[in-house]
């Protein structure tokens, strides 16, 4: 049975794209409290099928597919540039395909403008009208206004005309940054990308007996199974360790592990993988906010996901990506690694930042452990000492030493040098992610 929260989300998702949504309207339509409606609307905003715009309200927008996430809606553009809607408010939910900077003659400009574009231009009134007639929205920079005719045309065509106080260069930079951030988000693997769905998951009922578990386990040889109630709510998980030595007539609910560690579809694969390592579990149920089982992920699924992401081309690089791509093994000394300090990894003083140094040392340790023992590793704790600042342009040499390695742990010591002088020392304990 669906919860009120899930019913509201389904109701919102079923609304027409562009329709306005209010807490009071949802509460009245579904006979729920305004608090329940508010929480569901916020969740819909997190799931990116509604957007809240200052002075406009909350509207239903097109939910972006992950492969298309680098596209912005005009509503998002409005928020990014702190804009004011001059006309065409009903088109804010639409998605823009590209933006064009109007820094050329009008006839030249029109060669680049087509339906779905966003023209970024100053107070060139003729360009505003021409762009709208071509099916493009308009972003007027410098705080300028648009003519009454343009505003009326925008309302008729449902194409937004937005005004912002920022200049054209600043606006283009802000939109580029937003698209870049979404490219990074696109590359983050979520549990929903790798989950084995409920239709392919073997589940057991709490009221069934251990003999049924033994039969299923003999046929499939899986390591464990989620245990659910008749309504689909997850109540536990059962593995061979739970059932061994138990009477075959014992109920599963008596021997299962209650309150297992779970994740939702929006949890990152990295976070789920770390939990599996730290808790020493091979199977993790995936549930909704209300506890309904939607599938499972296994340790093998997480390992495959890690391997797949390492082979993907980077489109939106994070600081971690930049640091990792700069690390090189010194050719004639394979036990040493080098790194050049570039502007992106410096702090306000022009020296290597604490965060970048942490990433640098952690990644070198990961590589050394992988050379010794194949598989993934996760840093559990770290001690780092900065001895001297490392300036921009410096060549950093890292010398890692594995002090101890076992089946589940590795302890690695690091010396960090610049121009032959030691500038930092570190010690990291890694947990090993066995295959």
Describe the overall structure.
It is a single chain. By secondary structure, this protein is α+β, with helices and mostly antiparallel strands. It folds into four domains: 4-60, Winged helix-like DNA-binding domain superfamily/Winged helix DNA-binding domain (Arc Repressor Mutant, subunit A, Orthogonal Bundle); 66-187, HprK N-terminal domain-like (Udp-n-acetylmuramoylalanyl-d-glutamate--2,6- Diaminopimelate Ligase, Chain: A, domain 1); 192-307, Roll (CBS-domain); 319-433, Hotdog Thioesterase (Thiol Ester Dehydrase, Chain A, Roll), CATH 3.10.129. The protein has helices spanning 4-13, 23-30, 34-46, 74-80, 106-109, 125-133, 148-157, 168-187, 191-194, 210-220, 240-243, 252-255, 269-279, 299-310, 319-326, 354-372; strands at 20-21, 50-53, 57-60, 84-87, 98-101, 117-121, 137-140, 161-163, 196-197, 204-205, 224-228, 234-239, 257-258, 283-287, 293-298, 328-330, 333-340, 376-386, 395-405, 409-418, 421-433. The strands form five sheets. A six-stranded antiparallel beta sheet has the order 16-17-19-20-21-18. The protein is flat, with a radius of gyration of 28 Å.
């Amino acid at each position: 049975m669906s919860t009120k929260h899930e019913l509201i989300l389904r109701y919102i998702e079923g609304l027409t794209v562009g329709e306005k949504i209010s807490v009071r309207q949802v509460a009245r339509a579904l006979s729920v409290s305004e608090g329940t409606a508010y929480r569901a609307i916020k969740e819909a905003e997190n799931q990116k099928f509604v957007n809240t715009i200052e002075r406009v309200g909350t509207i239903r927008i097109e939910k972006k597919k992950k492969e298309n996430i680098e596209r912005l809606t005009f509503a998002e553009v409005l928020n990014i540039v702190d804009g004011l809607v001059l006309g065409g408010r009903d088109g804010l939910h639409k998605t823009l395909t590209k933006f064009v900077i109007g820094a050329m003659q009008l006839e030249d400009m029109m060669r680049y403008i087509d339906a779905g574009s966003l023209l970024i231009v100053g107070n060139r009134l003729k360009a505003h009208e021409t762009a709208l007639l071509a099916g493009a929205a308009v972003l007027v920079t410098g705080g300028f206004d648009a003519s009454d005719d343009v505003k009326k045309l925008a309302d008729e065509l449902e194409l937004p005309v937005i005004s912002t106080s920022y200049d054209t260069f600043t606006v283009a930079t802000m939109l580029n940054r937003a698209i870049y951030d979404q490219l990074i988000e696109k590359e983050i693997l979520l549990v929903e990308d790798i989950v084995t769905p409920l239709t392919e998951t073997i589940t057991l009922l709490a009221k069934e007996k251990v003999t049924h578990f033994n039969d299923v386990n003999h046929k499939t040889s899986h390591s464990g199974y989620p245990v659910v109630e008749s309504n689909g709510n997850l109540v536990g998980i059962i593995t061979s360790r739970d059932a061994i030595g138990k009477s075959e007539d014992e109920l599963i609910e008596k021997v299962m592990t209650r309150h297992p560690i779970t994740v939702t579809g929006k949890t990152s694969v990295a976070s789920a993988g770390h939990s599996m390592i730290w808790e020493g579990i091979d199977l993790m149920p995936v549930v909704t906010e209300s506890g309904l089982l939607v599938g499972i992920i296994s340790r093998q699924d997480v390992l495959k996901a890690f391997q797949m992401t390492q082979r993907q081309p980077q489109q939106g690089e994070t600081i971690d990506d930049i640091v990792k791509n700069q690390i090189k093994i010194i050719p004639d000394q394979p036990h040493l690694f080098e790194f050049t300090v570039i502007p992106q990894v410096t702090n306000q003083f022009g020296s290597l930042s604490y965060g970048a140094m942490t990433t640098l040392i952690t990644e070198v340790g990961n590589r050394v452990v992988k050379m010794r023992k194949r598989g993934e590793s996760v840093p559990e704790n770290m001690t780092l000492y900065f001895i001297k600042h490392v300036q921009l342009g410096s060549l950093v040499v890292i010398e890692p030493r594995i002090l101890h390695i076992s089946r589940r742990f590795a302890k690695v010591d690091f010396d960090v040098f610049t121009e032959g002088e030691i500038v930092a020392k570190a010690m990291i304990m890694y947990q090993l992610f066995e295959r």
